[in-house]
TrEMBL record:
SUPFAM superfamilies: FAD/NAD(P)-binding domain (SSF51905). Consists of an N-terminal FAD-binding domain with a Rossman fold and a C-terminal substrate-binding domain. Signal peptide: none annotated. Keywords: Cytoplasm, FAD, Flavoprotein, Monooxygenase, NADP, Nucleotide-binding, Oxidoreductase. It catalyses: a tetracycline + NADPH + O2 + H(+) = an 11a-hydroxytetracycline + NADP(+) + H2O. Its EC number is 1.14.13.-. Pfam families: FAD_binding_3. Belongs to the aromatic-ring hydroxylase family. TetX subfamily. One of its GO terms (cellular component) is cytoplasm. This is Flavin-dependent monooxygenase.
Length: 371
C-alpha cells in the first residue's frame, strides 16, 4: 500500500524515516526544488520528552547529539532599559534537557538517513482525487494514505477541515549578524552562547546564537494588525532604511539593543504570525491525515518543531503496528496527537498571552522561575 507524504519538513521526514526503519516504504513530495533551495531558519531546542524522543524512535539519537549544542540552553532575559532579570548559564556537565540544534542540520540529518529517491523535489501539491495526487506541473502520483506535512499553509488540510490559520496580532522581522565573534566581539559577549531576550513596551527582541557563528535576531511587535507591515514604515526591500526605521521604533530602548540592529546584514524577512485554533480536531477520514503545523499551527515559542517530530515518529510506529489496517493506525495516531498537541497548544497560547501583556518581562521571569 502506498504511503505518500506531502512536505519534506522535520515531521514528514521523521515519518518517512520511522516507516523505513520498520520496513515500510514511503515517498515524500516537496515543492522546493532541492534541499538547499532556501534557508531553514534558526535554532531549535529539542525537548527530552518530545523532539528527542522522536530522534530515538528514528534511530538517530547519537547523531542528533553530535550536532546539538548544550550551551545553546543559556538564557538571558532583560527589560528594555537594560536591566538584567535572569541569566542562566549551562554547566558543562548539565543534562541535555533542551539542547539547541540548527534546524538545517537537523533536517539534513533526517534527509541523509533516507535513500535519495525517497524525496521527490519540485513537486507542489495541487489537489487530490480518491487515490491520486495532482501536482501543479501536471504530474500525478497514486496513494493509499496521504499525509499532509505541508506546514502552516497546508493545502492537504482542506481535505479534512475548513479551519484556517488566523493572525495572532504579532508581526515579526528576522535580521542577522554573520560571524559575530569576529565582526562584533563586544556584541557576541553581550548575547552569550544561547538566547538573549528583551521584553517590554509591546515589543520583543530575541537574539539567538546559531552553530555557524551567525546570530539571528527577531524583532516582534505585539497587538498589531494583520496589515501592520504596510503601515509600519519599514521598507523591507531596502535593508539600510529598514534597519534605520527599526532603530527608530526602539529609540527609547537601551542603546546596546539598537546596536544589535545596526550591526545586522541585509537579511530582512517579515513574518506575520498565525495559528490554528487550539484543540483543532476532525473526524477520522480514510486515506488522509495531517501532522505538524498542518495539523496544529502554534505560536513560535518552542513547541511546534517538537510536536511535528513526535507526530511523525508516532504515526510511523502506529502504521508499523497496523500494516494491514491503515484506518486503525490513523485513528490511534490522531487520538493521541489531538490530546498531546492540545496541551502544547494551551501552553503556547499562555506564553503568547504573556508576551502581549504590559508587564511581559516580569511575567516571563515568573514563568521561568515559578514560586
Amino acid at each position: 500500500m502506498a504511503i505518500t507524504i506531502v512536505g519534506a519538513g522535520l515531521g514528514g521526514l521523521a515519518l518517512a524515516r520511522v516507516l523505513r526503519m520498520n520496513g515500510i516504504d514511503a515517498v515524500v513530495y516537496e515543492k522546493e526544488p532541492s534541499r538547499d533551495a532556501r534557508g531553514q531558519g534558526g535554532m531549535l531546542d529539542l525537548h527530552a520528552e518530545t523532539g528527542q524522543r522522536a530522534m530515538r524512535e528514528a534511530g538517530l539519537f547519537d547523531e542528533f547529539h553530535a550536532i546539538a549544542r548544550p550551551e545553546g540552553q543559556d538564557l538571558r532575559l532583560l527589560e528594555p532599559d537594560g536591566t538584567l532579570l535572569l541569566q542562566e548559564d549551562t554547566p558543562e556537565d548539565a543534562p541535555l534537557d533542551r539542547p539547541e540544534v540548527d534546524r538545517a542540520d537537523l533536517r539534513n540529518l533526517l534527509l541523509d538517513s533516507l535513500p535519495e529517491d525517497a524525496v521527490r523535489w519540485g513537486h507542489a501539491f495541487e489537489h487530490a482525487d480518491i487515490g491520486l495526487l495532482h501536482f501543479t506541473d501536471g504530474s500525478t502520483a497514486p496513494y493509499d494514505l496521504l499525509v499532509g506535512a505541508d506546514g502552516a499553509d497546508s493545502r492537504v488540510r482542506a481535505l479534512l477541515t475548513d479551519a484556517r490559520p488566523a493572525h495572532t496580532g504579532q508581526n515579526a522581522i528576522e535580521l542577522g549578524i554573520p560571524d559575530i565573534d569576529r565582526t562584533h566581539p563586544d556584541l557576541a559577549a553581550m548575547v552569550g552562547r544561547g538566547n538573549y531576550w528583551v521584553l517590554g513596551d509591546g515589543k520583543s527582541l530575541s537574539a539567538q546564537r546559531n552553530g555557524d557563528g551567525r546570530v539571528r535576531i527577531y524583532l516582534s511587535f505585539y497587538n498589531t494588525a494583520e496589515d501592520w507591515f504596510a503601515t509600519s514604515g519599514i521598507p523591507c526591500d531596502d535593508p539600510a532604511a529598514a534597519r534605520a526605521r527599526l532603530i527608530d521604533l526602539l529609540a527609547d530602548w537601551d542603546p546596546r539593543f539598537t546596536a544589535l540592529i545596526a550591526a545586522c546584514d541585509d537579511t530582512v524577512v517579515p513574518r506575520s504570525i498565525t495559528t490554528l485554533p487550539v484543540g483543532l480536531t476532525w473526524p477520522s477520514t480514510t486515506g488522509v491525515t495531517l501532522l505538524g503545523d498542518a495539523a496544529h499551527l502554534m505560536p513560535p515559542v518552542g513547541q511546534g518543531a517538537n510536536m511535528a517530530l513526535l507526530d511523525g515518529a508516532l504515526l510511523g510506529l502506529a502504521l508499523a503496528a497496523h500494516p494491514d489496517d491503515f484506518p486503525a493506525a490513523v485513528k490511534e495516531y490522531e487520538r493521541e496527537m489531538f490530546e498531546r498537541t492540545s496541551v502544547a497548544g494551551r501552553l503556547s497560547a499562555r506564553i503568547q498571552e504573556i508576551l502581549t501583556s504590559p508587564d511581559a518581562s516580569q511575567k516571563m521571569l515568573a514563568f521561568f522561575q515559578p514560586g
